[in-house]
Amino acid sequence: MPTDTFFAAMPKVELHVHLEGSIRPETVLKLARKNNASLPSDTVEGLRDWYQFRDFPHFVEVYVAVSKCIQTPDDLELVVREFLEGQKTQNILHSEITYTASTIEKYAGIPWADQKGALQRGLTYGRDELGLSAGFILDIVRGDSAERGMEVLGWVEDGLGDGVIALGLAGEERLGTAIYADVFAAAKERAVPVTVHAGETVGPESIRETLDITHANRIGHGVRVVEDGRLLAELRDRQVHLEVCPGSNVCLGVYPSLAEHPFARLLDEGISISLNSDDPPMFSTSLTEEWVRAAAAFDLNEDIAWSLTLNAANAAFLDSDSRRKLIGDLRAGFSALTSE
Fold this sequence. Notes:
Elements (H helix, E strand, L loop, with lengths): L3 H6 L2 E7 L6 H11 L8 H8 L4 H13 L4 H17 L2 E8 L1 H8 L3 H19 L2 E9 L4 H14 L4 E7 L10 H9 L4 E5 L5 H11 L3 E4 L7 H10 L2 E4 L1 H6 L11 H6 L4 E3 L11 H12 L3 H14 L4 H19 L2
């Protein structure tokens, strides 16, 4: 099995990571002090303790409180820059970042046009100064109105080609997807790429509903598809990609431990999957740590690591030239590591 050092140095792709859920406690505290935002602690140590996952309501509480600390476009640009710097330290060459623009507008009153400018400036920094590629998936939050969902779709269309790459759907899975049927029908008609959260805290019926309504070719999580053999075969036949986040699944109690996670079965069944960190500081993880833990739990060798990384690159929302360049960079990085 490859060493921890191998996974730290390995070139990576991440498809499922939330911007707001990736903000470090140090940055949250800095923004809270600047903007007079309320937090349960005024120390980094206290915030780290508060960040620790307890249950889903507490997770939502932390997520919303952190989001409220972003009050200006400059704050948002800072968050993007620091996120990409963190990706750079892990040799993550390409990131597809879920971002909830509607929440930032709701709590900070930052219009979409100003948010888009801040996101673009952050991405430009990542490209020019760090040598990384990235794009944003704007997600609808389950529980918001269909009208709000259509507004988010409008923002996605406005941002396509300018740092926005897809429409997403997240939030409490039990609230379903049907209310947004018209939104996703419009997205399909307008050829807007789509990825949705499903099959995590709710079973395979959520995946079925989501596929039927959204026609997504990528699903965030999706791990509970293993409970329905027919659906599992369909995902394989349709080449639907699953953005798998094992550490997050264990924290949320979907599975008691990594040993009981269906990651290995999904691999054996020939499902296209990738490894991701979701909300890293809130789940006490990172993408590198996810690789280290998965390698130990599922006996991943270098060939499997390359195969999973290639899965992610092929499932990324990239044009053909960008995908070709990314795969070339990944291959060069792997070759350098495996020839040492």
